[in-house]
Design brief:
Layout (H helix, E strand, L loop, with lengths): L4 H10 L7 E4 L2 H10 L5 E5 L10 E2 L8 E4 L2 H11 L3 E3 L8 E2 L3 E5 L3 E12 L4 E7 L6 H7 L4 E6 L7 H10 L5 H19 L2 E12 L4 E3 L3 E4 L21 H8 L3 E4 L4 E5 L2 H13 L6 E4 L6 H13 L5 E8 L4 H15 L5 E7 L2 H10 L4 E3 L3 H17 L1
Parallel strand pairs: 15-17, 17-18, 18-19
Antiparallel strand pairs: 1-7, 2-4, 2-7, 3-5, 5-6, 8-9, 8-11, 9-10, 11-12, 11-13, 14-16
Helix pairs in contact: 1-6, 2-3, 5-6, 9-10, 10-11
Bound molecules: guanosine-5'-diphosphate (GDP) and manganese (II) ion.
Manganese (II) ion binds next to loops.
GO molecular function, one term: succinate-CoA ligase (GDP-forming) activity
GO cellular component, one term: succinate-CoA ligase complex
Subunit structure: Heterotetramer of two alpha and two beta subunits.
Length: about 400
């Protein structure tokens, strides 16, 4: 799960991260009141969406640009807020459809000297928390890594030892920080590490971490992601969820406890077993089309759960065809057939459906499907199934 910048800054601040003073606003009037209460006479108004690249973003159908704007008076904060709230912001991370801006963050502005990059993430290969930092902040770290890999510095944290000050000191020197900034960098890293470990995060990213003209370190932007498998330890994190920012297909799937990940392709997949689901996605890809989702209905799923899964696939406007690939073991083929028939009658089957069933109660399942009158295509094996669904989707596009 991802959270907004303003929420991430609140968590980081509680662990000792230096951040500018700011508050979240839901209207232009509220933004103005917040600006009045802030120190100084320069403010930053920031669109709160779960996507980066806001600074260079553009609003759909609007001349005013920018999801991050520098205001030089309280009046300007109100004007900018009016131009930003309830508009759709397109950044290179949102896709062309953009995201509706429902909230703004209003912060005290600062004078930037240098922009650095800092993040903490899990390096799965090393099985360690890794610090990534660079002198080239304010831009995409992927670009920096591609063009000038020598400017990306990393250090991994020994899980037995935890965060060590000497690592921060070493990185600070390599970032050409001086004097009090070295002590501040240690504090910044400790705060990032404490926040990460306290909340079982999977990412903490500060981009940019700035050195102000006065020579102090300050986290100007913050992004955090969490490992939902650890949510049982952090009930309060669930309150930070913003359903407006989440894939509606995944929300519906979560309500039924399904392992579902929405993707951008056109072939909906209903499969049992994560490995078979991955193989099914690969083979669709090998046939030249893309899966619309990952879905593992699991072993002992009920008819209701399978029907919910099938409804989610059929309700997805991107889906041009559905491939059901079940290797019946604990999951029985007749349960799958029953759920597919039920959900198809309920929602209406408007796209081609290819079914490949094997294993427990396969005869019963296939008989039920054939007798249901649904216009489905039966496949013998995985390769056959992929070829058939791809052919059906393509002929659907031509007609
Ligand atoms: P992103 O584009 O979504 O990553 O949004 P950021 O929060 O990183 O803001 C983009 C850029 O706006 C930063 O890299 C800064 O250059 C600039 N910016 C943000 N806050 C301030 C501020 O308080 N003062 C000044 N001068 N610039 C700021
Ligand atoms: Mn940023």
């Amino acid at each position: 799960m991802n959270i907004h910048e303003y929420q991430a800054k609140t968590l980081l601040k509680s662990c000792g991260m230096p951040v500018p003073e700011g508050h979240v606003a839901h209207s232009a009037a509220e933004a103005k009141d917040i600006a009045r209460s802030l120190p100084g006479d320069v403010f930053v108004v920031k669109a709160q969406i779960h996507a980066g690249g806001r600074g260079a973003g553009k609003y759909v159908g609007e001349p005013a640009t920018g999801g991050v704007r520098l205001a030089r008076s309280v009046g300007e904060v109100e004007t900018f807020a009016c131009e930003m709230i309830d508009r759709t912001l397109v950044t290179k991370q949102t896709g062309p459809e953009g995201r509706l801006v429902r909230k703004l963050y209003v912060e005290a502005g600062c004078q930037i000297g240098r922009e650095l990059y800092l993040s903490l993430l899990v390096d799965r290969e090393k099985r360690r928390l890794t610090i990534v930092t660079s002198q080239d902040g304010g831009m995409d770290i992927e670009d920096v890594a591609a063009k000038t890999p020598e400017r990306v510095l990393t250090a991994s944290i020994d899980p037995g030892m935890g965060f060590q000050e000497w690592q921060a000191r070493d990185l600070a020197v390599r970032l050409e920080l001086r004097g009090k900034q070295i002590r501040q960098f240690i504090q910044v890293l400790r705060a990032a590490y404490d926040t990460f470990t306290t909340y079982d995060a999977s990412l903490v990213e500060i981009n940019p971490l700035v050195v102000t003209k006065d020579g102090d370190l300050l986290a100007l932007d913050a992004k955090m992601s969490f490992d939902e498998s650890a949510f049982f330890r952090h009930r309060d994190l669930e309150d930070l969820r913003d359903e407006n920012e989440e894939d509606p297909r995944e929300q519906e799937a979560a309500r039924f406890g399904l392992s579902y990940i929405g993707l951008d392709g056109t072939i909906g997949c209903m499969v049992n077993g994560a490995g078979l689901a991955m193989a099914t996605m690969d083979i669709i890809n090998a046939e030249g089309e893309q899966p619309a989702n990952f879905l593992d209905v699991g072993g002992g799923a009920s008819r209701e759960k399978v029907a919910a899964a099938f409804r989610i696939l059929l309700a997805d406007p991107k889906v041009e065809g559905v491939l059901v690939n079940i290797f019946g073991g604990i999951m029985r083929c007749d349960v799958i057939a029953d759920a597919v028939i039920g959900a198809s009658h309920e929602v209406g089957l408007k796209v081609p459906l290819v079914v490949r069933l094997a294993g427990t109660n396969v005869e019963e399942g296939l008989t039920m499907l054939k007798e249901s009158g649904l216009p489905l295509i039966v496949a013998d094996d995985l390769g056959d199934a992929a070829r058939k669904i791809v052919a059906a989707v393509r002929s659907g596009r031509k007609s």
